[in-house]
């Protein structure tokens, strides 16, 4: 059974990937500093090494102790406005973190890596849908630091015989369809989580940032991808590398866009009640529309999404959020 080191495995996407690895017969080991992740997101029986991925000696030790054959690297800081306010912290965590990880991998002789990248590397796409070879012009320190990490990995790969699949995620949402994990941090900012909060009465209304974009209904359009499909894309990328496949950079989306208003309608439908919303000015730095050219990931990895539907994404997000809300609501009753 191949052991896989999962950095950031106590976080939202990493914990879903840990489950997907276990479902696929791999043995995950989590390395996480618990800065935004939570210990309870790591399933019982999965080893958890608490520490900083920038610590190359710690990474090397974890890889050797657990005889890891590959790494999935999720650990990062990822809140866009925070990256604007605290660029040095973001560059340190996302670039120095990746550097420490790579040093540890080279020292331990581990040469296969799946890296969490983001559509934020593209900035404001000139052409839609956006393909992997489109120009990368990030518009915030988060996207810039992730792009720099991609390039650092590319240099290390060339010199040290590493192979890496970088997956550029589009808008990740939803929760584990079996209810085992999901977003755990309060204070949601992503649209689907915010809309679920409003549907569950945990906030008054959803603020719609702009209805005057050049899109079909004037609101922002995004390519939402189910977190469980993203996790199986990681497993497919891992298998590709273990089978001797070469490095690749792949968009991870479904290739379809949904507007803010259509997301709100989907949440209303799933919740069976209205989601109040108010129109506000555009949010700074928001592109009008971001949609993936999503063919390459399917062709190269044979990835077959199982939850490619906005209703599924929203339904699973709502079920998870409702479950999280239940104890608090019972306490209030
Ligand atoms: N959530 C999204 O919409 C989205 C979109 C595109 C890309 N991504 C990428 O996916 C990855 C995971 O994001 P997420 O949404 O699960 O976020 P998250 O905050 O839930 O998970 C990040 C995890 O990494 C850990 N971590 C952070 N810095 C660390 C460090 N220096 N050492 C060890 N552990 C550290 C945190 O404690 C947390 O468990 C990130 O690399 C992010 O850039 C996320
Ligand atoms: O309360 C809200 C929250 C969001 N939106 C709108 O909903 C859309 C999606 O916004 P999110 O905040 O959910 O997500 P972003 O598109 O801003 O960003 C996410 O997707 C990007 C790729 O498209 C990157 O991956 C990035 O890291 C990730 O946070 C945007 O049009 C935004 O203006 C609202 O109207 N109200």
TrEMBL record:
Domain NAD-dependent epimerase/dehydratase span(s) in chain numbering: 4-253
EC number of the protein: 5.1.3.2
GO MF annotations, alphabetized: UDP-glucose 4-epimerase activity
Keywords noted in UniProt: Carbohydrate metabolism, Isomerase, NAD
Leading EC class: isomerase
Recorded metabolic or biological pathway in which this protein acts: Carbohydrate metabolism; galactose metabolism
Keyword Signal listed: no
Similarity comment text for this entry: Belongs to the NAD(P)-dependent epimerase/dehydratase family.
PANTHER family in the record: UDP-ARABINOSE 4-EPIMERASE 1, UDP-GLUCOSE 4-EPIMERASE
Name recorded for this polypeptide: UDP-glucose 4-epimerase
Organism: Muricoccus pecuniae
């Amino acid at each position: 059974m191949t052991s896989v080191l999962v950095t950031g495995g106590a976080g939202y996407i990493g914990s879903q990937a840990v489950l997907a690895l276990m479902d696929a017969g791999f043995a995950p080991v989590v390395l996480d500093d618990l800065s935004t992740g939570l210990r309870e997101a790591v399933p019982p029986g999965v080893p958890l090494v608490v520490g900083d991925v920038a610590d190359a000696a710690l990474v090397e030790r974890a890889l050797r102790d657990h005889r890891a054959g590959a790494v999935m690297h999720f650990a990062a800081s990822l809140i866009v406005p925070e990256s604007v306010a605290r660029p040095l912290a973001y560059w340190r965590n996302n670039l120095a973190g990746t550097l420490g990880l790579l040093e540890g991998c080279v020292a331990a002789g581990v040469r296969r890596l799946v890296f969490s990248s983001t559509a934020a590397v593209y900035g404001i796409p000139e052409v839609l849908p956006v393909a992997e070879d489109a120009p990368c012009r990030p518009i915030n320190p988060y996207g810039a630091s992730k792009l720099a990490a991609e390039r650092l990995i590319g240099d290390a790969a060339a010199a040290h015989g590493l192979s890496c699949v970088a997956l550029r995620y589009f808008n990740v949402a939803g929760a584990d369809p079996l209810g085992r994990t999901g977003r755990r941090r309060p204070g949601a900012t992503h649209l689907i989580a915010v809309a679920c909060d409003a549907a569950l009465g945990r906030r008054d209304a959803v603020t719609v940032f702009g209805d005057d974009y050049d899109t079909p209904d004037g609101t922002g359009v995004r390519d939402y991808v189910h977190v469980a499909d993203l996790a199986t894309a990681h497993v497919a990328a891992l298998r590709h590398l273990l089978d001797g496949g070469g490095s690749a950079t792949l968009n991870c989306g479904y290739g379809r866009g949904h507007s803010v208003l259509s997301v709100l309608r989907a949440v209303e439908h799933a919740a069976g009640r209205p989601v109040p919303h108010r129109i506000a000015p555009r949010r700074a730095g928001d592109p009008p529309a971001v949609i993936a050219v999503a063919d390459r990931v399917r062709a190269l990895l044979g990835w077959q999404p199982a939850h490619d539907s906005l209703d599924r994404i929203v339904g699973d997000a709502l079920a998870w959020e409702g479950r999280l809300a239940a104890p608090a609501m019972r306490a209030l009753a």
